[in-house]
Design brief:
The protein has 190 residues and is α/β, with parallel strands linked by helices. The protein has a single domain, classed as Dihydrofolate Reductase, subunit A. The protein contains five helices and ten strands, in the order E-E-H-E-H-H-E-E-H-E-H-E-E-E-E. The protein has an eight-stranded mixed sheet, with helices on both faces. Strands 2-8 form a two-stranded antiparallel ribbon. Helix 1 runs parallel beside helix 3. It is globular, with a radius of gyration of 16 Å. InterPro entries: DHFR-like_dom_sf, RibDG_C, Riboflavin_Biosynth_HTPR.
């Protein structure tokens, strides 16, 4: 059975973006890119909300093509073009996009069908609204969090309107030279 893993940068106080969606506080470097690239290369499926998907579609298909493209841009662009994409969106319901599945209704049933199709991970990139919806339906199996050394004080929280406790088991931690700490959790569904 496939597992949905939420991949998210967040502030020390639990925000994934500033109040207007700002993400200019997120620290990334080659060390983080290499770490993330290894894990991503083990998956063939990405899950996005509409806004994040459109942002990714505007950048990644051609990000590795330019003469000044970084190693990360080349590698992730190649992965992105080959990965199957799942997009949660009510407004894109009738879009016919190659290599992409649009889920606009019956979210729990559709996601559970996809999870039953194979083993491995479905990586949920960013997408705070989609993440909130999946948390409410108890469909997230793990969290891969990159805690940035900043306190925002306000913004878009990762965990909002949680109805029941979510118990987590820590699988791994990794500290990066830029001050970011990666925390890899699996949801304890017992």
């Amino acid at each position: 059975m496939r597992k949905i893993i939420s991949f998210m940068h967040l502030s020390l106080d639990g925000f994934v973006a500033g109040p207007n969606g700002e993400m200019n506080w997120i620290k990334v470097n080659e060390e983080i890119f290499d770490h993330v690239g290894r894990r991503i290369s083990e998956s063939d499926t990405a899950l996005y909300g509409r806004v994040t998907y459109q942002m990714m579609e505007n950048y990644w298909p051609t990000a590795g093509d330019g003469p000044d493209a970084s190693k990360h841009d080349i590698e992730h662009s190649k992965w992105y073009k080959q990965a199957h994409k799942i997009v949660l969106s009510k407004t894109m319901a009738n879009a016919d996009l190659p290599g992409t599945t649009i889920i606009s209704d019956n979210l729990a049933d559709r996601i559970n069908e996809i999870k039953q199709q194979a083993d491995g991970e479905i990586l949920l990139f960013g997408s705070p609204s989609a993440t909130h919806s999946l948390i409410q339906l108890n469909l997230i199996d793990g969290y891969w969090l990159f805690v940035n050394p900043i306190i925002l004080g306000h913004g878009i929280p990762l965990f909002a309107d949680i109805k029941d406790k979510i118990k987590l088991n820590l699988l791994a931690t990794r500290q990066f030279t830029c001050g970011v700490t990666a925390l890899d959790y699996i949801v304890d569904k017992q």
